[in-house]
């Protein structure tokens, strides 16, 4: 197989390797998938303006974030069901992130036990929390993540109800996956994926099946399967989180400058501007378009991260020019995972790293601090 030249090459490989129903789960978004497209269109509508003759013989892509130094302004976004994409997919992503020296985020809907995520290899792991009905389970998860050495908590707040993913409905994608004739046929056409699944076994929500969870487990399991979250969550709930989690908290799913301000007043340590990659509110704005207003509202009080639609190093440089501290990668990392496990994720990181360095060189920025707002303009035509 020829070498992958860009992230889209990994996407093509993911499509070849995964059964249709699994690829659609990874790739799909809510309703008409207009937000999914808008994220890309908006990123393409922002252009970079180079500064020339800047002696860019050396380019430094490293950043400082929440007390850690990272090699790149990137992080792996939390994604659920990684075990369906690659056996022990959560661990493969964590390993690749540690190798690239960027943070790995582990989802509440992960398939690996959070105690099994490697922490020793210089990796910084963040734990993503969904709060589902039973608060004491969320409390236990926070304590377990803290004991397991997770450095920060991502509280995802854009899923009070699940977005309607029509591809999944059409494909009959239901959890746990059942060995229906349709799935078996789809799987038979993708034998490498099938062997991986047979070797690793059908993924489960490992963290919710722990014996300590007792009677709440089945109920919460069902809630996670249908992404039925605790809709009573409100601003006061941040105080509850604080009582159970002493390390930094990142609030994920913010699209309104006023919410960003409120979050900081409530003691949140970082904001993640996200529309969940278009998987929740299909009518939501593109994240790159709301980013300038949020940066203006936050006034540098906390770092602002962003995700949704990032596939190129130049996309990342645009977000940084608008004031973001780092970019989270959802699908881009998963394409690499689907194509070749940890090696594939490492391949995606290498490509993005090279693209970031090349773009910085072309725009005359020797460090992340030199990627200033005057390097980016919005095409209004
Ligand atoms: C397959 C998949 C599963 C996801 N699962 C979660 C999750 O469990 N928790 C969460 O906070 N976000 C989840 N997300 C959203 C990502 O964290 C991220 O916001 C989104 O993927 C960014 O857009 P991108 O895929 O275009 O990079 C998921 C996204 C995908 C594609």
Topology:
Layout: H1 7-17, H2 20-27, H3 34-45, E1 46-48, E2 63-65, E3 68-70, E4 74-76, H4 82-85, H5 89-100, E5 104-106, E6 125-129, H6 135-147, E7 152-156, H7 166-171, H8 181-188, H9 191-200, H10 216-225, H11 237-244, E8 249-254, H12 257-265, E9 270-273, H13 287-298, E10 304-306, H14 313-321, E11 326-329, H15 331-363, E12 376-378
Parallel strand pairs: 4-11, 5-6, 6-7, 7-8, 8-9, 9-10, 10-11
Antiparallel strand pairs: 1-12, 2-3
Helix pairs in contact: 1-15, 5-15, 12-13, 14-15
Flavin mononucleotide binds at residues 26, 77-80, 107, 109, 128, 156, 252, 274, 276-277, 279, 307-310, 329-332.
Description:
It is a single chain. With 381 residues, this protein is of the alpha/beta class. 43% of the residues lie in helices and 12% in strands. The chain is built from 15 helices and 12 strands. It has helices at 7-17, 20-27, 34-45, 82-85, 89-100, 135-147, 166-171, 181-188, 191-200, 216-225, 237-244, 257-265, 287-298, 313-321, 331-363, and strands at 46-48, 63-65, 68-70, 74-76, 104-106, 125-129, 152-156, 249-254, 270-273, 304-306, 326-329, 376-378. The strands form 3 sheets. The protein has an 8-stranded parallel beta sheet with strand order 4-11-10-9-8-7-6-5. Strands 1-12 form a two-stranded antiparallel sheet. Strand 6, helix 6 and strand 7 (152-156) form a beta-alpha-beta unit. Helix 5 (89-100) runs parallel beside helix 15 and helix 12 crosses helix 13. The protein is globular, with a radius of gyration of 20 Å. The model has no long low-confidence stretch (mean pLDDT 94). Bound molecules: flavin mononucleotide. Residues 26, 77-80, 107, 109, 128, 156, 252, 274, 276-277, 279, 307-310, 329-332 line the site of flavin mononucleotide.
